[in-house]
Write a structure and sequence with these properties.
alpha/beta, 8-stranded mixed sheet, 8 strands
């Protein structure tokens, strides 16, 4: 493990690859098996054929697997084997989605892969009766999916959860990060990208400090849905979504519960904590380091470049400057808050979580997942179901 890997650590134990970024992505893909989005055998077969020193082999093997699974899913759909086809399209989504991890977002192949996994998930969503939504926002749209609860009592209004992803996620990922479990538990579920997330940068939407504005737009849309109980709207954010959800809860008082994995109060401080000391002392080293990293770890430069793209800037130093205003004032939060942390998280995430929990003055709960529980990784990707049990049991309590 390199020094950079240690700085950006997101899980405690490597499971297959020596490169921590590749290994984390592999673990992430495996995590989707909890909701039929991956197969252990398929994932490890692809991994066994990858040369981690060649990023192209990563892209090619995941793509080849995705194509095989997509073809099989289409054949099953033609035979009217709906369940098998649905699960096949979910797995094909995952494999195309992780192929895209190895491609610079400025390259044509990146958008090609994005459109492929969007199409696969859309096919699965139609079979699952998930509704595709594009919520109007500042002349454009916030893309996502909505599940309308189907209670036994006709037209009964149900609790609703808004699931918000992180810097590397797409609205389709949110089905696995709480959406599917919400459906199982008879919640209305809105899985949505705010500006900068997912593929929204293709449409000219970029990250902004006042994330409460697009979230407010999503809540405005929700309260007009007949199945939604306005007094029982919650928000759940993972990774960067931890900042988005907390900040939204501070300003949007129609949010009645907020859960985050992990809490982020100061995004600039968090980013700085993940950087080597020499970069922290002189930001001009940051862009040079990004250029040099392509010779040592191509997966790292892909992640760095995507961050700049989502921010609408060219240099990483510009992105770092922009997030200086990304802060949350916990004094403005008056709804119950669930803070979730994995034991294997980087020091910066642990510091943000501890400070957030200490400063919150209202109803709050802290849940730290351990290595022994197999849920210690960032956003509990290695044990999603366990994290979602805590999430929804807590929501049942505070929204009752």
């Amino acid at each position: 493990m390199t020094k950079q890997d240690v700085h950006s650590l997101r899980h405690k134990n490597l499971i297959y690859f020596k490169n921590s970024e590749m290994d984390f992505s592999l673990m992430w893909a495996l995590g989707y098996q909890a909701y039929s989005g991956a197969s252990i055998g398929e994932v490890f077969y692809a991994a066994s054929r990858i040369n981690e020193k060649d990023i192209n082999s990563w892209v090619n093997e995941w793509t080849a697997l995705a194509e095989r699974v997509e073809t099989a899913a289409a054949a099953e759909l033609a035979r009217q084997h709906i369940t098998t086809a649905t699960e096949g399209y979910l797995r094909a989504f995952t494999y195309y989605r992780f192929a895209a991890v190895g491609v610079l977002c400025t390259k044509p192949r990146y958008e090609q892969l994005v459109r492929k996994f969007e199409a696969c998930f859309a096919q699965a969503a139609s079979l699952l009766k998930l509704e595709r939504v594009n919520i109007p926002f500042e002349g454009k749209a916030l893309p996502g999916y909505f599940w309308r609860s189907t209670p036994a009592k006709l037209r009964e209004k149900r609790p609703t959860i808004i699931v918000i992803g992180g810097g590397e996620s797409y609205n389709e990922d949110l089905y696995f990060f709480g959406g599917a479990e919400g459906i199982r538990r008879d919640y209305n579920v809105l899985m949505v990208d705010i500006p900068g997330q997912g593929a929204t940068a293709f449409d000219g939407l970029h990250y902004r400090a006042d994330v409460e504005v697009p979230v407010k737009t999503a809540v405005d849309w929700l309260i007009h849905q007949p199945e939604v109980s306005p007094e029982r709207i919650a928000i759940y954010g993972v990774s960067t979504g931890g900042y988005i959800s907390l900040r939204a809860a501070a300003f949007e008082k129609r949010i009645h519960a907020c859960a985050v994995s992990t809490p982020i109060l100061d995004f600039h401080r968090l980013m700085m904590s993940a950087l080597p000391q020499v970069v922290r002392l002189n930001s001009s080293f940051l862009d040079a380091a990004a250029l040099l990293s392509r010779f040592f770890d191509p997966s790292m430069v892909i992640t760095i470049q995507r961050t700049a793209w989502q921010m609408g800037v060219e240099k990483v130093s510009e992105a770092l400057e922009r997030v200086k205003t990304w802060t949350v004032d916990t004094r403005l939060i008056d709804c119950p808050v669930l803070c979730i942390l994995g034991e294997g998280e980087a020091a910066g995430f642990k510091m943000e979580t501890e400070e957030c929990y200490k400063l919150l003055s209202g109803s709050k709960r802290l849940r730290v997942y351990t290595v022994a529980e197999g849920a210690d990784a960032h956003c509990q990707i290695n044990n999603l179901r366990l994290a979602h049990q805590e999430l929804y049991d807590w929501l049942d309590e505070v929204l009752s």
